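Sequence, please.
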């Protein structure tokens, strides 16, 4: 009996005290993530649950009326900033679009909507955003976040990045293109050919967004089917308001560039 109690105590002592860690540990280890890395990550002093995230999911931007949504993103300032950014990044953006046969202004517009041309990275620690969703959100969202957190930890482990060092959205998207972790792993491209896929290197960002759109139906033929273009943008964010605002911002930037 004493041996059984001792054995049981050892087993219990081996279990993570953190409920989220307990939930993801086996799958994370099976994905090739070292246990020491996981232990350190889940013992970090900055782990925090953001109760506000639940409220944000209940009132997403995409559910605003078209007029409200458009007013946020299609502004004179954002159009001018887009034209200025394009001029500064023309060579890199143009070479990416030419090699991948994709509209450079569409790539630019997505970045303009997602992060205002890289000026807004997000205010949430990505680890904590996903951790919170697992901890307090309903089943489907919690299960989604579990998959995303494991993917995020896999990326951080393989690239030797602290999981608590990356800022992003309340949903857990990060980088100038605001990819969720599984999308980053599946679609990101080493555009600058330095051996890494970096979410904050413009060569990688341009190529990764282009790759995402192409893999999700963007037409690479010379004649672009508008529906295929629309659907590829819709895959980036499943919202008609999002697609409409990306396309309108793209067109307004084109008009601004034609005036200069």
């Amino acid at each position: 009996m004493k041996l059984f109690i001792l054995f049981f105590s050892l087993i219990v002592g081996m279990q993570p005290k953190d409920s989220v860690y307990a939930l993801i540990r086996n799958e994370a280890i099976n994905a090739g993530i070292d246990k020491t890395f996981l232990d350190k990550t889940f013992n970090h002093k900055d782990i925090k649950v953001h109760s506000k995230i639940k409220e944000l999911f209940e009132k997403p931007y995409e559910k605003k009326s078209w007029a409200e949504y458009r007013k946020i993103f299609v502004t004179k300032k954002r159009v001018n900033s887009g034209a200025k950014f394009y001029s500064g990044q023309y060579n890199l953006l143009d070479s990416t679009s030419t090699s991948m046969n994709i509209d450079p202004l569409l790539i630019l517009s997505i970045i303009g909507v997602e992060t205002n041309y890289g000026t807004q990275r997000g205010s949430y620690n990505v680890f904590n955003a996903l951790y919170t969703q697992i901890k307090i959100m309903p089943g489907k969202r919690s299960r989604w976040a579990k998959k995303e957190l494991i993917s995020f930890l896999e990326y951080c482990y393989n690239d030797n990045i602290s999981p608590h060092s990356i800022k992003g959205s309340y949903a857990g998207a990060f980088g100038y293109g605001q990819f969720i972790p599984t999308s980053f792993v599946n679609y990101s491209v080493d555009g600058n050919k330095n051996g890494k896929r970096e979410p904050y290197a413009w060569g990688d960002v341009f190529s990764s967004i282009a790759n995402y759109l192409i893999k999700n139906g963007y037409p690479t033929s010379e004649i672009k089917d508008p529906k295929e273009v629309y659907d590829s943008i819709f895959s980036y964010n499943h919202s008609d308001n999002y697609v409409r605002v990306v396309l309108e911002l793209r067109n307004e930037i084109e008009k601004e560039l034609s005036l200069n």
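The chain has two domains: 19-48+123-168, 56-121+175-259.
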